[in-house]
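hi! just following up on the protien thing from before. the input was this:
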Amino acid sequence: MSGPQHSSELRDADLRPAPISLSDIGSALRFGFDQFRSIPLLSMGFALLFVAIGLALFTALEFGEIAPMSLSLAGGFMLVGPILLAGFFAVSDKLRHGRHAVFSDIWEGFRRMPRGGWVVSFVCGLLFLIWITDAGILYGFMVGSEPIGFLRLLNIEAMVVNYAAWSAIMGAVLAFILFTVSAFSIPLIYDGRAQLVSGVVASARAVFGRFGVVMCWALVLAGVIMLSVLVLPLLLATLPVMAYASREFYFRVFPLERS
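and the predicted 3d structure came back as:
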């Protein structure tokens, strides 16, 4: 009995978040930029897929003259962001161990993701659909059938500002819930350090136990990615940088080696 109990105690200790500070955010960002700089073509090649998807969606919004919905799509990207991380994790880990990363590593990252990680990703996708549906309903009430293209957004009209404000409030609630559940559970599950339930519990423990620093990280992450989605070419660089930085920040919250 003592063997399994001791193993369980070690596992529980491994899932306790370490002390962190704001300097860890800066260090994680520098780490993410350094990794991106070492393999820019591979990183941007993977990010290009999502830039192309975003461009297609924005083209559809312009064609349908519902450009203000782009603000909701930009926010919604944060809800599906965790689904993309496995590919970047594999590339980041290759570089971290001094090995050369190739495009096939991206697929390998998704292939090795345990089932629990896909369950969390499914929840992310489900919340994204809920978010877009709610945003569409809100758009119908606050903007209606008024045709608005992207050029008209430059006028900063009151109804568009009100829509953006209320949709941001709605999205912030979903985003906080999702961030709490997935921010650390997905990398913990990916690394085999936790199962679905224990990973989600550890993630929530880290968010609430290190609330100030983790929320600062969440705001930096959300701000950079949302701005980049609205200015799509930026996403080619910022998406991989923030993905690699997220990997590093996770290792600072849940170090592999405990004293």
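Residues 1-10 have pLDDT under 50 and may be disordered.
The radius of gyration is 19 Å.
cheers
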